[in-house]
Each structure stands twice: as structure tokens, then as C-alpha cells.
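FAQ: What does the model actually see?

It sees only this:
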Amino acid sequence: MFQNYFKIAVRVLRRNKNITFINIAGLAVGMVCAALILLYVRHELSYDQYHVNKKNIYRLITGVQGAAYQAIAKVPGAWGIMAERNLPEVQSAVRFVFSSETLVSHGEKRFYESGGFYADSTVFQVFSFSLIQGNPKTALTRPNTIIVTKNFAEKYFGKEEALGQTLKFDNQNEYEITAVVSNIPTNSHFTFDYLVSMATYTNPRRDDWQWNQYYTYLLLNDGASPEDVTAKFSTMLRTHIDEKLAADYTPSLQSLTDIHLYSNLFREIQANSDITSIYLISAVGFFVLLIACVNFMNLTTARATTRAKEVGVRKVSGASRTHLIKQFLSESMLISIIAAIIAVVSIELLLPVFNLLTGRQLTFDYFNEKLFLLGFFGLAAIVGVVSGWYPAFVLSSFNPSKTLKGKSGGAYGVWLRKSLVVVQFAISAILMIATGVIYNQLEFIQNKKLGFNEEQLVVIPMRGNGMREKSESIKRELLNHPNVVSVAASGNLPGGGDWGIPYEPEGIPLDRVPPMRELVVDYDFVKTFEMEMAAGRTFSHEFSTDASAYIINEEAARQLGWNDPIGKMISMPNVKREKAPVIGVLKDFHFRSMREKISPIMLFIPPQSWFNIFTVRVRPQNISQTLAFLEKIWNQFDPSHPFAYTFFDEDFARLHQAEEQMAKLLGYMAGLAIFIACMGLFGLSAFTAEQRTKEIGVRKILGASTGNIVALLSKDFTRLAFAGFLVAVPLAYYAMNRWLENFAYRVEIGAGVFIAVGVVAVIIAWLTVSFQSIKAASANPINALKYE
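And it is asked to produce this:
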């Protein structure tokens, strides 16, 4: 029986080649989108799932009273040690501290590396990183020892065994390689190239109870409650630090597997995704596949009238409705399976492009993805059943006596076809509107004045104390080139590098002091970044007291309640800065992404040892020559470190990289949705023109022009496209308004984007239909009257 169904299905599909091609192509495109998005979603949901103890691993985080953030992903180093030693529920703890970018060398190989951490020796007790060589219990117990990944080892040693070898850091310290681990999976909320033993970390504040610099993870015993551990930890904290200070902290535990999609804390170890993006991308993939299914249903239902006699003959010959449903479902299943095969083959070709759009490193292994392939073809079968069920239901319900008399039942499914066309264009319009709003927001971000000039700034990291001590001499040398406008040294930069040092402003109780961020800069920083003063003046060598003075922004003055901030006193006891005056107020500038409101920030001049960066403003002419000059001066002062630089505007633009990726992905998906919808519309318009062949011939003989015929055949589909647009408007407006709420500074959703999308939708529909309409209208009316 099945073989018979299959043979008939193949014959029917071959007889209607155009419709078959449209159905298969549309479903294949929809399935490719669905498959790629399924791979992406699976990858996002798999973060940190490979750790054996994943259910019992928690990150220790804390809120800080008066801070410019709700919670921070780092805690003081002593907290993790205290938890491990004093809480019976805690089986083990491990801490990580960023290792700053440094020059790593072995023989002739020298590279700047920034993918490292200092880590406790308990790292393998908590995490399931795959060890290739070395002893997990002793690998990080001694000072000056290091664990490296396989790729990192091959980078410096090639095929030579790395275990027991040494690497030199910053031309000074030599670290012995005590273990080699497999490359850290990309579905980890943090990755690394190497881990240096925590015993090597010599920062004088390493045991400070209030210095939030450690990413701390706790492995709890089976059955231990994270809520109970949090409560006990808060109580215990009060026994180690002053109760008043302890009250400022609200520590809590965060499940390891929740971090990637549910955490957006201050100072995250690496940028996370969020569950909202997963929902959005999943919905987009579903909608594109839905449009493909709608195409299939529309075209199959529309063709039902041409198979009415076939149905009548089959029923008269004894075929039951169940047999007919099985026959028609076998046709839709065959189309779906063929489309699925094409889609699976296409994944390999399109995956690199998709990885560029999403910023991921997704892979697809045909031989090791049996479960995925089984699920995908299962989805294809479901798509085939869902897409073919209604057409099968319509075709099998025809009355044999009527169909054999020529009454085809053409009214069946007309209302559904029109409704589904509206749905198609509504989904397409929503995606187009969403893409337009996101692009408008990105353009707004790119064009909005930041409060300083971010262009033509070259950022050069300092290497070693020698560069810091000679910073003024280096600046003078750099200024000798005519294309160098100004040079500044600083410890950090706008763009997320701001610090949070406690401060005490004059006349304000400590419990009412607003949170403040800091940039540590030199005398020329404000000039180099071309920031604007709202009041007072910038730092100047002419005033010896400026070395201890402060500059604040307008928002800081507002939140401090200082109508006239000039001369107000500020101190920083934690870094031994005595009271000093505010000498200037900067106009507000963006030092974080547009998602965040401008908050209070303060600039001051630190000791030279705090400096890490040179920022050089250059003229746009002869950039390559200017960079060559910068490298020459660098080599004169520090020949032991290779010259390296970045452009500030490129670094700052990365704050909105996720939005750019989302805009590109939505843009492509919207294009595919429109393409699939147009394929279906093309098929429907061809069928409609075919059904009205005699009518067109009669109208032409009676004097109707080609334009009249085109308008007649196009107006119904144009109306449906416009109706779909009207359905999309309120839905898209609501969704994009919610999305824009994530930005403190955002565009208003004006009528322009809706009008543009509406016009485009109608034009696309009209152009798609008009091709068949013109073809039908241009045909010889004599041939039309002989039709059938």
C-alpha cells in the first residue's frame, strides 16, 4: 500500500514541476534557517553543562551598598577561603584573578597574551577541564607554575612535549608548565589559554576583605541548599569585618549553568548572552519555517480544484476518505523529506556565514550528530504532516457526484488561503520593522555625540614600569611628529574601563554619598579626548596642587547636590588621598554603552605607577607613516617589547557588537522570509491567472487593456499584503518598544519605519504578482477562449 502511495506521489509531483519546485525550495530554505537556529540555541543552552559537578557549582557574587551597579561578579579573595574552611556545606572553592596582558616568550617565539588567569590549585576539584598531561592535585600548588591548553602549548612548542618546559613572562619571570589541558570548550561562560598558580600572585591586597577582584566558585555537597549557604555566609562575614561594613554587602550564590543566559552583572568574566535573545532568535526561526509551511498549504490547497475529478473517480472506485488522506499526506511528506535532505546538505555551506553573524563557532559533524539528524528529520516529518494535513483534509472531502459533474469545489480553502497570505506578510513585515528599528538605534548610537571625540585616537598599552617612569619623556618625543596632535597617559579609558574607588565628598553623610566611577589620567587627557568643560578648568602643570585635585562631570555635581562644585573638597582614604578641591566640571560624556545612563564620574591624577596606557591623537593624513613613527619611538624607549596598538573608536564600538550581530541576523532572516513569501505568492498568482484564463480572454475581446488586466489580477494580493502589514504594525511596535527599553538612550519609533515597510511590502507583493499578471494579460485572447 505504501509503495502505491509513493508511486502516485512521485507522478503528481513530476506533473506539477513548478509548484513542486516552489514547495521544495521554500521548505528547504525554511528548514535551513530552522536547523541553523536550532544549532545555535542548542549551543547556547549547553553552556557549562559538560562539568561533572555542574549542579553543585555556584559562583559567589555580591551587591555593594552605594555602588554604581546592582551586583558584581567579583568578591574579595578572603571570602572564598573563609567559605571553604568554615562552611560544612562547601566541599571546595576555587578563585580566579585576571592575568593582565603580558609578553610571553620561548626561544624566538614572542607573543602578547591576554587569555590567562591566576587560579587556585583546587581548580580540578571544582571544574571538569580535561587533563592531557600532569597531576591535577599538584599542578598549581607551587609558585611560578602554569597550566596551558593544548593550542597554547602547540603555539610555543609545536610537536615538542610542553610538560616540564618553561615560559618567560614579560622578559622576567619564568614559569614551569606542570600540566596541559584540552582546549576549553567554546560553550563555557569563561575560557582561558593558561592558568598561573595563585601562589604566584603577589598583589599586596590579595587577602583584603573588601577588594572585589576574585571570581570565586564554590562546590557544594550533594543536597546542600545554596540559600542556607548564603545565609550562613552573610552571618559569618560579620565576624570577620566591621558589622557596619558587612551590612554594605549582599552576597549570594549563582548557579554555574545559569550564568551565560541569566547573568548580566558588573565585571562579568566574559560577555554573556541572555535568555531573551534565545527566545527572539527561536521565534524568528519558527516564523521563517512557518512561512514555508504556509506556502505549502496555500499552493496545495489552491491546486485542489484541479484534482477534484481525480478525487471523484477514486471515491467512486471505492477509495475511502482515510485512503485519500494517506495519499495526499504521503505527497507532502515526500516534499518535506526532500527539502530536509537539501537543507542538511546546505548547512555545511552556510554554517561559516552564520557563525560570522552570531559570533559563535558552531560546528556540524554528520557522523557524530545522529541525535540531531534524527530530531531534524523528525521535525521534517512533523512539518510534512502539519503542512499537508489541511490540504489532505480539503481534497478528501470533495463530493464525488459534484466533482464528476464538473463542480470542483473551488470555494474550499479560499478564506484560509487569504488568511495565510496575510499571516505570511504580517510575519515578514514584523521582521522588516524589527530590523529597521534596530538599524535606526545603531545609527543613533553611532551618530550620537559621546561628549568627546573618539576618532583618530591610537591606544598603546604600556609594558613594564620603565615606560611608566618615562611617560613624560615619551610624550615629548611623540609630539615631535607633525601628525601627532596630543598624547595622554592614563590608567584606564572610557568604554568600561572605569574604576570604583570609595570617596568622601565634603558635607555629605557617608550613607548618602552617590556611587562614583573614576578615570585616572594625566594633565593632557581632557585635551587629547577633546572633552568639553562645563565649568572651571582642566588640569594644568601651572598649578602644582592639580596633582591632587579632581574634575567631575555634570551628573556627579547634580547627584552630589553641588550647584557650584568648584572648590568643593573630596578625599579618598582607601588610596591615601587627602582632601583636595574640585577644579572643573566636564560636560556629561558617555563612558559606557548606550544601555546605561550617564552616571557620576571623577577624574584625578594618580602616581605614575598607576598608568597603563598611552592615547595618541593623530591627524587623519598619512596614518601608516604616523604609526611607523610611533613604533620607532616605542622601540627607542622599550626595545624588549614589540609595539602594539588599537584604535579607540573600534574598541568602543564593540560595546554594541551584540546589537550589530542581532541586526544583521534579523536582516537576513527578514530577507529570507520575504523571499519565501514571494515564492508562494508567485505560485498562487500563476494559479490564479491560470484559473481565470477564459475571463481574461473575454475581457480583452471586450476592450480591456493590459494595464486593466494586471490591476484586476494584482489588486487582491496587494490588499492581502497590506492587510498583513496592518496586522504587523501593533505587534512590531509593542515588541520593539520592549527591546528599546534596554537602552537608556534610544530612538523613538516614528511613523517613518512603518510607512517604509508598508510601501516595500506592497511593492514586493505587486512586483511578484505582476509578472504572472502581465504574462496572462499579454496572451492571445483567441487561445485563452480555446482554453480547456
